[in-house]
Amino acid sequence: MYVCFILKIKFMSKKLWKMGLLSVLKQSTVIHLIFAITFFTTGLITNFFQCLLYFGLRPFSRYCYRKINYYLCYSFYTQLVFLIEWWSGSDFILYMDRNDLEKHFGEEHGYILMNHSYEVDWLIGWVLCERKGILGNCKAYVKKSLQYIPTLGWGWKFSEYIFLERNWEKDKEIIRSQIREFGNYPDNISLLLCPEGTRITPQKLEASQKFAQKEGLPILKYHLTPRTKGFTASIPYMRDKIPAIYNMQVQFNSNDSVKPTITNLLLGKRILGHIYMQRIPMKEIPEDQEAAAEWLHKLYEKKDRMAESFEKTGDFFATSGVAKVNKITLKRRYYSLINTICWTVIVVVPMIYYLINLFLSGSTIYFSIGIGTIFLFYILMQKTIGISKISSSSSYGTGELK
User: Fold this and answer.
1) Closest C-alpha among 276, 376, 365 to residue 37
2) Angle between helices 29-56 and 364-385 (to 10 degrees)
3) Residue 276 located in a structural domain
4) What pTM did the predictor assign?
5) Residue of 334, 383, 354, 374 lying closest to 41 (CA atoms)
6) What is the number of domains present in the chain?
7) Is 122:388 a contact under the CB 8 Å cutoff?
8) Are 288 and 234 in contact (CB under 8 A)?
9) Domain that holds residue 146
10) 352 pLDDT above the threshold of 80
């Protein structure tokens, strides 16, 4: 018994040591640097091939271009999915009708209306899309300025995201032409719209509530008043191409000690998201633009009740009046893990070999330039995956909103 006890103590000590080592590695700047270099380098490689295909193949065969671009995007995007699923061990719980999940979501073109309340809600949405096998064809409405950001922004440009200029006459035409193109895609796409236009903050919420009160619109507690123009302009071109709208509500428990931020994901801290998803057939959306705008406001009243219910009870359905649906847990796939490991080996091994040769050559200038370049990559990666922070600027409280 004494020997067994000693062996058990040794086993537990070894296990704790490994856990402690893993925790140290997850918070190590060197490891973050490796991730940054891999992410940014693979992004540039992806952008290079996207550029070649965009100008060399797309004019002759948009079908083939989009088919190949799907896999390029998937290989790049899954590195951020790896950050959530495998690096931080984060996950989500899905609340959705199982029949809609299995027979419709991912099996048809979908138009997703999502709240934008957190830094990483869009990443949690990417994890859901990855597990349904549609990550490579995720699209969104985004600011035009984001297309100039290296890697993600460039990749979105080559992937035909809808870039808006905040000029209604121009944006109306952009929306019309892009949505018509989406109907011709060889694989199913998911088009994301955050009607609030920006991530919520206390200052923006106050400005939004004042605006809603002045205009006689519903006053929301947990969301900004949705902007309806982009939505109502999109619907007429979707009716024959996109069969359903998906109402997506993402929430995190505000009492959790680990907040849903990109920094915490990089540090390997686990978060748990809750996603409510409802499929709404396109035929249920009014054809008249004013009626469609009113429909969107009513949807956001529902989303606000669900957010309030979750904040107060930890349950979407307790006080919201929304019909309860069962929890669904989707199993994570190994593709993001394998993909990230392969890219890390391809990028990091030659880099280390090159740095060692520079160091052995005795040229301190070249070696310093090499090290400086690596840290520059790290800074660029932080800026790039912090893209949701960049998009948080808003016109709430200014004349543009009026």
Assistant:
1) 376
2) 80
3) yes
4) 0.85
5) 374
6) 1
7) yes
8) no
9) 89-334
10) no
